[in-house]
Predict the structure.
Amino acid sequence: MSKPILLSVKGVNKRFGGLQALSEVGIEIEQGEIYGLIGPNGAGKTTFFNVLTGLYTPDSGEFMLGGAPYKPTAVHEVAKAGIARTFQNIRLFGDMTAHENVMVGRHVRTKAGVLGAVFRTRATLREEEAIEDMAHDLLEYVGIGQYANFTARNLSYGHQRRLEIARALATEPKLLALDEPAAGMNATEKVELRALLDKIRNDGRTILLIEHDVKLVMGLCNRLTVLDYGKVIATGSPHDVQHNPAVIEAYLGTSAH
Ligand SMILES: Nc1ncnc2c1ncn2[C@@H]1O[C@H](COP(=O)(O)OP(=O)(O)OP(=O)(O)O)[C@@H](O)[C@H]1O
């Protein structure tokens, strides 16, 4: 039985000068699944992510999130609407501790507001304590609780990636969008990442994953879409997609296969 649709995207077009980077791209992600977006270099994956998360304005496109129309405008609006993302190149606050990085993510959802923060009312202090606790819990959840007080830049690469995921989860997203989370990871880190993403899905969250590591995507995703030259060339289960002639053709001779 199919689950409710969390994200529905239709007819996305995006042109850069003479280059049609996205052509009528659409996807539907069900609640609680890991959905993959793959494709050879330059296929348009990151452009799609940037459109979805408000970094690029599409030339056209319709978006529904959690059953309501969703307009990916400014980045902070996207976070409020319920999409949190990580980036291909890690973007942490390098001089802040791991704990502080997660707290920053949580502030998207705080209620006390600026006046509360300035006058440090009792409500603000209570909220701040709750945020501190939640940040600690999230660091434990992603498996780096013991590094809470380490400066982000001093964490290992794999741990920085986990910290990014914790920070994204702190916004309590409906959809967690991960842009190449396994990039640069060694084999052990990849196995651990896979277990973490599995756990996040088992806890009911929905994940959209761009990933170059085809093995990881095929092993982890419920369904996926393949882009090539800005167009959707296949959508389906890992098994169906792997046997799709258009996909085999697109990947022939590329390092991603
Ligand atoms: N800001 C931009 N200005 C002009 N062209 C762009 C811009 N961003 C992306 N492109 C072009 O759009 C196409 C799609 O790029 P995109 O980065 O989305 O692909 P990708 O599938 O994410 O590739 P990769 O796997 O290499 O990251 C490429 O031809 C790229 O050169």
Q: What stands out?
A: Residues 97 and 150 are 5 Å apart (CA to CA).
